[in-house]
Specification:
Elements (H helix, E strand, L loop, with lengths): L3 H9 L4 H13 L17 H13 L14 H13 L1 H6 L1 E5 L3 E6 L9 E6 L22 E2 L2 E3 L7 H16 L8 E6 L10 H11 L5 E11 L9 E8 L1 E10 L3 E2 L8 H13 L9 H10 L5 H8 L1 H14 L1 H7 L2 E9 L5 E2 L2 E10 L5 H12 L5 E4 L15 H13 L4 E7 L15 E10 L12 E3 H19 L3
Parallel strand pairs: 3-6, 3-7, 7-16, 8-15
Antiparallel strand pairs: 1-2, 2-6, 4-5, 5-17, 7-8, 9-13, 9-14, 10-12, 11-13
The structure holds zinc ion.
Length: 492
């Protein structure tokens, strides 16, 4: 968000004095939504040992590749053997099931069977290293090297950081004789990066079959972001309460094929181009509402300056805020179902008219929009019955929106505030996909949050070059999971 300059101009150009007065009152009246917690003594963590464990986990090349279902997955089995060795108490006390050969499902049975369980999710697989980028890394991408206070390598952040810190937390609790009141499930899929069908989806089916109804599910997701919003000084922990959906539509046009010396009035490529232009000219409406609206209203009281005033007075300034947010792709994606033309095919010779042309348009759906609705929207925008419109497989609806007043949200929020005292907690919308979407039919409240600190410049490390996590932050992650489990399943 970079809206400050234009807000200033807007305000200087003269809104009436009465409105300014009303807005100022609103700024004063809008109280913080942050829960007040007493600071706690963070759980003790053997920093060196934990860093070495994560470093070892990074060295297993558990790569998921698109279009490579028959890939050798022996690295996953080696990772499993390592986990057994590194976490003896986990493996002595929890039950462990292997699902579809590689996904892991652990259960730590609770003492009170009337309490609903909780589910902590992570995934074992990682994305490949982009060919040619290996030499740009400051440490071997699968070396797990520990240097300059960081653990380096693919997966250190996404998502072995979460997987290993969850296990460190459970190991430490189990070793200390902790007995959970409610059952705790740990699910570690092995194919999240290629859809999660064999891993998380299969585990979700098992939960359904067994009648497991979790109180809440927590998976990887949004982060503790620093310096992302002008006017907001403290870092903000965004708890993903929903995830956008995904649909790719294939648009196809046809025309008589033939020689380019005698073209008809309508060509396949010309018709397709016109249809695509119409789709692009008809974006879905942007709204400062839903999850994005909740996020802005939650951070507003923690801000200062003009942005605070604008966000505290959405009743008045919504159109202005909307225009500003829609201007940047990253914030635009929070306000609307986005449209992206990603593939086009048609013609392969300069003097031949192709009989068909096709394009793929990828949509990311805001909660509330549906795949069906997207097809309708595109059909209306194209307004040409001769253009074929087809939904490609693997589309997924936007997730339901989890509650911000549930026990689960409260526990996550409290844990963050206790361990990261200066951090503001707010609900957020996950733009990318996670394994947790498979839990939609299993639990009402699914949250997507990783206690990972990141600044804007770190985001390129995600699925990119120089992925790493600081040891200090990794220790915070372990403390987060340990404290969360104590709160959720400890003695009252
Ligand atoms: Zn991930």
């Amino acid at each position: 968000m970079r809206p400050t300059v234009r807000y200033a101009a807007f305000i200087a150009l003269g809104i009436g004095a009465g409105i300014v007065a009303a807005a100022s009152i609103n700024v004063l009246r809008l109280g913080s939504r942050q829960i007040i917690v007493a600071p706690i003594v963070p759980p003790a963590v053997d920093e060196r040992r934990a860093a070495e464990h994560l470093s070892s986990a990074v060295r297993f090349q558990t790569i998921s590749r698109d279009f490579a279902p028959d890939v050798d997955r022996s690295e996953f089995l080696r990772l499993h053997a390592f986990l057994k060795e590194a976490f003896p108490h986990v493996h002595a006390i929890l039950t462990r099931e292997v699902v579809n050969g590689y996904a892991l499902l652990y259960a730590w049975p609770g003492e009170d069977p009337t309490l609903r369980p909780i589910v902590l999710m992570a995934h074992q697989d990682v994305v490949p290293i982009a060919p040619g980028s290996e030499s740009q890394w400051h440490a071997g991408p699968f070396s797990g090297e520990i240097k300059d206070g960081y653990i380096w390598g693919r997966g250190a952040w996404d998502d072995k950081g979460n997987l290993m810190s969850i296990l460190e937390a459970v190991e430490s609790l189990a070793a200390a004789g902790f007995k959970p009141r409610r059952t705790i499930y740990l699910t570690f899929g092995h194919d999240e990066e290629i859809g999660g069908t064999e891993g998380a989806k299969a585990i979700a089916s098992l939960f359904k079959l067994r009648g497991v109804r979790p109180e809440f599910v927590l998976d990887e997701g949004l982060l503790i972001a620093e310096g992302i919003m002008p006017g907001l000084d403290p870092p903000v922990a965004l708890i993903g309460i929903a995830e956008k959906g995904w649909a790719t539509l294939k648009l196809t046009t046809t025309a008589p094929p033939g020689h380019s010396s005698m073209p008809g009035a309508r060509t396949a490529i010309g018709s397709l181009a016109r249809a695509l232009d119409r789709v692009e000219q008809a974006p879905f409406p942007a709204v400062v509402g839903g999850v994005a609206g909740d996020m802005l209203r939650t951070v507003a009281p923690e801000m200062h300056g003009l942005n605070r005033m604008a966000l505290s007075n959405l009743w008045l300034l919504e159109p202005l805020v909307r225009r500003q947010l829609a201007a940047a792709p990253s914030t635009n994606a929070l306000l609307r179902t986005t449209t992206a033309i990603t593939v086009i095919r048609g013609g392969d010779k300069e003097n031949v008219l192709p009989g068909t042309a096709e394009a793929w348009v990828n949509f990311r759906l805001l909660p509330g929009d549906t795949v069906r609705g997207v097809v309708e929207h595109v059909r209306r925008a194209v307004d040409d019955e001769r253009v074929g419109i087809e939904v490609l497989p693997q589309s997924s609806e936007a997730s339901p929106v989890a509650s911000q007043t549930s026990d689960g949200y409260g526990l996550i929020s409290r844990t963050v505030r206790e361990l990261f005292p200066s951090v503001v907690v707010a609900p957020g919308l996950m733009i990318g996909g996670t394994d947790s979407r498979h839990m939609a039919g299993v639990a009402e409240n699914v949250y997507r949050f990783s206690p990972v600190r990141a600044r804007a410049e770190d985001l390129s490390r995600f699925h990119g070059t120089d992925e790493r996590i600081s040891i200090e932050n990794y220790v915070e992650m372990i403390r987060f999971y340990e404290t969360l489990i104590r709160h959720a399943a400890g003695a009252r």
